[in-house]
Amino acid sequence: MARASRTPPGQGVDLEIHAPTVERILTGFIAGESRRVGLGRVVVGLSGGLDSAVAASLAARALGSRAVTAVLMPWRGSSPASVKHALLVAGRLGIHHERIDITPMVEPWVERYPEAGRVRHGNRMARERMSILFDRSAEHRALVLGTSNKTELLLGYGTIFGDMASAINPIGDLYKTQLRQLAAHLGIPSSIIRKPPSADLWEGQTDEAEVGAPYDVIDRILHLLFDEWLREDEVAAAGFDPALVARLRRRVSETQFKRRPPLIAKLSMRTVGADFRYPRDWGT
């Protein structure tokens, strides 16, 4: 997908993708995996952001607009622009959408734990939203479509069993900068592509401010570290801030627990998740 120049290492990293090919692969993935389990439908949390807009667009192209249900889940502090952009995407795609305000579900918890900070509050909202999505998936007999990109997954920038959960994820191997390229190809409105990425957890919150660097820099560093297998000193020698390189590498390591299934203590010869592993369609 990505090409990298190694002279000097890192300086000429090119994360350009061939968007039509990526679209073909990902729509085929969605169609194949959803129909393999006998469903052929998906539900997706539509936040008004870039990631969910791309995932919904791919699903509509893969399965048809009637097979996609978008769920808007704002809370009282959500930006009005987020809801506006989510409705814009749903309207353009012609997909059915539902709006469920999570404020009545989250507020009792906030009142019960007033000392909880922004992180715990954000985690509570993310898990409430995923709980709703899996409920809607049961109602519609559909798979929950993931909306976490590769940058977020590597950095653990998400809530375990919250927004990082899904049945299938079509965009999890695309860095954020690559996702923007695919979004332009899919015709996602420029107002959504250009706006600063945000989980919309509190007023003024942006992803890049929290991580401490712009995505085009973060993605190049991550690509060199984990796709090109360069050492930290090699990446830094390419002109990247050594402290940032080290911090990103450390964050990936510290959040590995979010990217793996729960560990099961091994007692038998055939332990689920360790030895008893089959493709998702085994036996069908």
How would you briefly describe this protein structure?
The chain is α/β, with parallel strands linked by helices and 284 residues long. The chain has 12 helices and 6 strands. Helix 3 links the parallel strand 4 (68-72) and strand 5.
Fold blueprint:
Blueprint lengths: L2 E4 L2 E6 L4 H18 L5 E4 L4 H14 L4 E5 L7 H14 L2 E4 L3 H10 L5 H23 L2 E2 L5 H6 L20 H11 L3 H5 L12 H5 L3 H12 L5 H6 L4 H13 L30
Parallel strand pairs: 3-4, 3-6, 4-5
Antiparallel strand pairs: 1-2
Helix pairs in contact: 1-2, 1-7, 2-3, 2-7, 4-5
What does this structure look like?
The model is unreliable at 3-9 (pLDDT under 50). It is globular, with a radius of gyration of 19 Å. It contains twelve helices and six strands. Helix 1 (19-36) crosses helix 2, helix 1 (19-36) packs across helix 7 and helix 2 packs parallel to helix 3. Strands 5-4-3-6 form a four-stranded parallel beta sheet, with helices on both faces. Strands 1-2 form a two-stranded antiparallel sheet. The chain has a domain at 16-212: HUPs (Rossmann fold, 3-Layer(aba) Sandwich). The protein is of the alpha/beta class and 284 residues long.
The count of β-strands is: 6
CATH superfamily of the domain at 16-212: HUPs
User: Kindly state the mean pLDDT as a whole number?
Assistant: 91
CATH topology of the domain at 16-212: Rossmann fold
Question: Could you estimate the helical fraction of the residues in percent?
Answer: 40-55%
Largest sheet, in brief, is: 4 strands, parallel
pLDDT under 50 segments (min length 5)?
Answer: 3-9
| SSE pattern, N- to C-terminal | EEHEHEHEHHEHHHHHHH
- Return the structural class: alpha/beta
The largest sheet has its strands arranged as 5-4-3-6
What is the terminal-to-terminal distance? 31 Å
Number of helices: 12
Whole-angstrom Rg: 19 Å
What is the overall silhouette? globular
The level-1 CATH class of the domain at 16-212: Alpha Beta
CATH architecture descriptor name of the domain at 16-212? 3-Layer(aba) Sandwich
**Percent range for β-strand residues:** 5-15%
